[in-house]
Amino acid sequence: MAASLPVLASAEQRADLVEVRKAQRPLILSCGCRVLRTYRTALGFAPVGHKRQEGDGRTPEGRYVIDWRNPQSRFHLSLHVSYPAETDIAVARAAGVAPGGDIMIHGQPNGSGRLAAWWHQRRDWTAGCMAVTNAQIREIWSLVPDGTPIVIRP
Fold it and tell me: Which residue among 13, 117, 145, 151 is least crowded, i.e. fewest CB within 10 A of its CB?
């Protein structure tokens, strides 16, 4: 699979911010004041509110970073979001729960066909991740370098 990975775009074409607006579902890539791309995203199966614990089905809210990528993901390709932050861990610890983790921007489940991809983009189904189509994650992969900030808004 390594030979078919998307190539990272040139520096002037790369995003310097990823923004997700959970209520409306766009995932927006921007560079400076310029919007590069906008995608519709599916969220966690219980998307309202900030992620508090593992298994709650919520997509986190706040400021994080894209800190690594997984070319061998169960969901085509995936970019890891740095959740949980120290404050997320502290809040979960105070509540006596695990904060969860492995929050990603990813494509569709491997082995799913076009109909499954169509269906998966019309409802929230992840465990807290942000899911896009496989074509979209390939484009996002090429436009978003590691270290890019991501802001996830309610």
Answer: 13
